[in-house]
């Protein structure tokens, strides 16, 4: 049985869908929402099996609604119900389960329900098979470093061995003197070289014990160490490629995917100067993606969603003026001058209190100009 939610700002459409769905085989509970904002919040709290959503709604469009479902409720199927057929391509990109045109025909709705039931059964079978697979390997660099072998996560006994693997993974081809400078700073050259040799030996043994020696290889060649990898998933590389495509295309869907990938800083369990530089590099990319996402959401008129992302940005970067202005702009676009003013004052107070500096006159002038212009 499918638990269903229907989201449409027109009451008559909700009642019609409720009547038709009640007569469909395989339907359990039916929840109706005429306010898309309230509906989205309720569905995130208790995700149903399938959501039927109108495309054209106030405050949140059906396209944005589907993106929220994909990001927050991946197990919930989304079906567009609309009087227009102009969003079929976007529906495909958002992995929408089906696309029904109004006026809805009961027989067409029944076919959709049957299709969702069949696909759900197939996905459950595939998920069960995936759990049984033991040879999944992966390298996770956002957050703590995790390397997965045939028996699960690799257990690191020596921190420097773990750090050396991370360094080789991120750089792939490294000169010995550079490794010494970054991973073993201040250590005598001969001692550092011996330490590197020992760590590389331990790494090779560790890869072999975890069934990874055929996929990850570490070679020594003319004062260099070279790491090669085959068929390895890598969150850092995925983020880099996705972020570039998302920014180039300005696609809200791709931008959201990139933002969701960057959930934590890089290699949070390794504390070295070279890692701090790496974190800053990816932090800047993450901020760029987040800024572009907020701009695109504002362009589409999805002010509430844009505001949530802007507040998340400011929370991560409390002293970043770019984050401040995005929050202020979102509140101003939504007609909430009081909250815009509150955020600005809190930013100035935070800056003066913790950085020991008064707000720049340019900052105040820009804020006042923005307030006067809107």
Q: What amount of the residues lies in strands?
A: 5-15%
Strand arrangement in the largest pleated sheet: 2-1-3-4-5
Please trace the helix and strand order, writing H or E for each element.
EHEHEHEHEHEEEHEHHEEEHHHHHHH
How many β-strand runs?
Answer: 12
- Please identify the structural class as seen in this structure: alpha/beta
Cα distance spanning the termini: 51 Å
Instruction: Please work out how many helical segments DSSP would assign.
Output: 15
Main β-sheet description: 5 strands, parallel
| Low-confidence regions | 125-137
Roughly what is the average pLDDT, rounded to an integer? 86
Give the topology, please:
Blueprint: E1 2-7, H1 11-22, E2 27-33, H2 36-45, E3 50-54, H3 62-72, E4 77-82, H4 88-93, E5 98-101, H5 106-132, E6 138-140, E7 146-149, E8 152-153, H6 159-171, E9 173-175, H7 176-183, H8 189-209, E10 216-220, E11 224-229, E12 233-234, H9 235-249, H10 252-261, H11 273-300, H12 303-316, H13 321-333, H14 337-355, H15 361-373
Parallel strand pairs: 1-2, 1-3, 3-4, 4-5, 6-12
Antiparallel strand pairs: 6-7, 7-8, 9-11, 10-11
Helix pairs in contact: 6-8, 7-8, 9-10, 9-11, 10-11, 11-12, 11-13, 12-13, 13-14
């Amino acid at each position: 049985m499918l638990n269903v939610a229907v989201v449409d700002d027109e009451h008559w459409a909700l009642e019609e869908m409720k009547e038709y769905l009640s007569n469909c085989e395989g339907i359990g509970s039916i929840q109706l929402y005429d306010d898309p904002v309230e509906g989205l919040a309720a569905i995130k709290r208790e995700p149903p099996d399938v959501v039927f959503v109108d495309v054209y709604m106030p405050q949140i469009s059906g396209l944005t609604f589907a993106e929220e479902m994909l990001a927050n409720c991946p197990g919930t199927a989304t079906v567009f119900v609309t009087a227009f057929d102009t969003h079929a391509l976007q529906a495909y990109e958002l992995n929408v389960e089906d696309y029904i045109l109004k006026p809805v025909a009961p027989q067409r709705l029944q076919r959709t329900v049957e299709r969702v039931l069949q696909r759900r059964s197939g996905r459950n079978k595939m998920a069960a098979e995936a759990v049984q697979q033991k040879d999944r390997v992966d390298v996770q660099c956002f957050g703590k470093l995790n390397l997965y072998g045939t028996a699960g996560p690799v257990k690191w006994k020596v921190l420097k061995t773990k750090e050396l693997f991370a360094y080789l993974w991120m750089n792939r081809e490294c000169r010995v003197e550079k490794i010494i400078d970054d991973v073993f700073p201040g250590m005598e050259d001969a001692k550092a070289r011996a330490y590197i040799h020992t760590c590389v030996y331990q790494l090779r043994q560790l890869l072999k014990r975890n069934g990874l020696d055929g996929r990850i290889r570490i070679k020594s060649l003319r004062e260099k160490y070279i790491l090669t990898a085959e068929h390895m998933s890598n969150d850092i590389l995925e983020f880099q490629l996705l972020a570039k495509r998302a920014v180039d295309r300005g696609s809200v869907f791709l931008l959201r995917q990139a933002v969701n990938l960057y959930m934590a800083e890089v290699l949070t369990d390794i504390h070295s100067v070279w890692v701090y530089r790496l974190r800053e590099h990816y932090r800047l990319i993450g901020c760029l993606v987040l800024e572009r996402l907020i701009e695109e959401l504002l362009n589409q008129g999805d002010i509430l969603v844009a505001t949530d992302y802007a507040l998340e940005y400011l929370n991560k970067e409390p002293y970043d003026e770019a984050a401040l202005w995005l929050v202020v702009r979102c509140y101003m676009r939504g007609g909430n001058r009081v909250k815009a003013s509150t955020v600005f004052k809190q930013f100035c107070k935070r800056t003066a209190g913790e950085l020991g500096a008064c707000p720049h006159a340019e900052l105040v002038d820009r804020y006042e100009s923005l307030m006067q212009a809107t």
